């Protein structure tokens, strides 16, 4: 049985350029239910976490300005979203989904997935790149604070873009190892330093990508010895992605998920998966690639 967090979709009117990518959050659960990969019982609707848990990661002044709609025009532009109460509510609900999913994965020694999440460009004191609050960072701090069984966390960030906010948040935290494998020429222009960064040249395809990942991740699991894994499974690595420079096929993206989740399953590691980015021209390409992540998880733990 899967545990799937589904936050309410952002209903506030958005500029035309934002509406298309947001559709995946509605279509993906529908697809999973229609094909039988998940049942209604697998889904839970999260709630925002207590403020004290958010402030384990985020600066209190930034959080209050975000909550009350007092970001400067420059700060709002950096996030890429027009602020609204509904947007804030959705962001903190996503945090709750990743925290609760991590708790469930830990209890079952299995997997949980968030239909949204993967907001890895959010820093402690600011948002960037469509990310306002860093859900995997908040959930990591929650585990380290509330769960004695979790002493070391590995964050595997395979979104197209470097997890700069996550890297900065955990730069001086020895209990968290951050691994980001991303396009060298993609956003952000100024990269932060993860514990391990693998920057890929334009046009990297299935075999080069999967070979490098297969050489790297098993070694990391042995060296880091994590008690918990967060996996950011962005599908903006696809060749069809209009913002990206990598060249993975949909099948290659599925094999990537099999590699990561299969290793976690064989090592008995609980894993929390967030969907991250995806900006292909056809919404069907985005939804199908994300659905593959859930199918792989269901095949391994279902």
Automatic annotation (TrEMBL):
Domain called Histone deacetylase: residue spans: 23-291
Q: Which Gene3D superfamilies match?
A: Histone deacetylase domain (3.40.800.20)
Q: Which UniProt keywords apply?
A: Hydrolase
UniProt-listed Pfam families: Hist_deacetyl
> Is the keyword Hydrolase assigned to this protein?
yes
- Family of this protein: Belongs to the histone deacetylase family.
Name the UniProt record assigns to this protein: Histone deacetylase
Organism for this UniProt entry: Hymenobacter saemangeumensis
């Amino acid at each position: 049985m899967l545990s799937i967090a589904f936050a309410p979709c952002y209903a506030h009117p958005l500029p035309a350029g934002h509406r298309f990518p947001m559709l995946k959050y509605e279509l993906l659960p529908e697809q999973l239910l229609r094909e039988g990969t998940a049942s209604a019982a697998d889904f839970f609707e999260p709630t925002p976490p207590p403020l004290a848990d958010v402030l384990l990661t985020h600066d209190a002044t930034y959080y209050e300005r975000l909550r009350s709609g007092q970001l400067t025009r420059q700060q709002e532009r950096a996030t890429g979203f027009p602020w609204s109460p509904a947007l804030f509510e959705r962001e903190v609900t996503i945090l709750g989904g990743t925290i609760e999913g991590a708790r469930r994965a830990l209890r079952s020694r299995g997997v949980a997935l968030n239909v949204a999440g993967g907001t890895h460009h959010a820093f402690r004191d600011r948002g960037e790149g469509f990310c306002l609050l860093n859900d995997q960072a908040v959930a990591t701090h929650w585990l380290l604070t509330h769960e004695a069984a979790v002493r070391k966390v590995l964050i595997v960030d395979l979104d197209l873009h470097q997890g700069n906010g996550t890297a900065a948040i955990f730069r001086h935290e020895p209990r968290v190892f951050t691994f980001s494998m991303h396009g060298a020429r993609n956003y952000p222009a100024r990269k932060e330093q993860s514990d391990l960064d693998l920057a890929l040249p334009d046009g990297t395809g299935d075999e080069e990508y999967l070979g490098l990942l297969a050489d790297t991740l098993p070694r990391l699991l042995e060296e880091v010895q994590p008690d918990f894994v967060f996996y950011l499974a962005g599908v903006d690595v696809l060749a069809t992605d209009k913002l990206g420079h990598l060249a993975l096929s949909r099948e290659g993206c599925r094999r990537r998920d099999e590699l990561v989740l299969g290793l976690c399953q064989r090592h008995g590691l609980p894993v929390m998966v967030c969907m991250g980015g995806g900006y292909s021209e056809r919404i069907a390409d985005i939804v199908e690639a994300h659905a593959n992540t859930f199918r792989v998880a269901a095949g391994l733990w279902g």
